[in-house]
Amino acid sequence: MPGDLDADALAEELNDCRQRGLDWLDRSTTNQRPLLLPLLERLAEEYAVAKPIADVGRRVQIKTLLRDGIAELARQGHASDADLLRDLFFGQSLDGAISPPGVLLKKAQGRFGDETPSRFRERRVNVMRSFARFLIGFVFPPALVSAGAEDQWQRLATVGYVTSNDHFIQLLASAVNVTIVGITNERLPEMLEQALRLKREAGRPDAFWQSLRIAFLSRALLDVVNDEWEALDPGRALGQRRHEAVWARRSVWDLLKRANATRWLLYECPYLPTLNGALLEFEDGRKIVRLLIRRARRSRPEHVYVELDDVGDRFAAIFEDVIHECVSAELVVPVGFPADSTFHYRGPRNQTKVLVDGSGADGWLPMVLIVTPRRTGDQVLAMLQLRTQANSARELRRVSHLSGYVLQDDRLRPSGHMLPVPPQSFGLTDETPFSAASRVVQEVSADELSAAIRPVATGRYLYTDKEHLFFFIYVLDLPEGIQFPRRAEMHPFRLSELMGIRANQILRSAAALCRSAASGSGWSVAAEVLSLNLCLHDQPELGARLMRMPEGEREEFAHKIDQLVTTRTCPSLLEPGRDIEIAGLAGWQHREFFSVLVRLYADIGITGARELVREIDQDDEKSAAVRRLSELYADEDSMASVPMEL
Question: Which of 21, 106, 115, 571 is deepest in the core (most CB within 10 A)?
Answer without folding.
Answer: 21
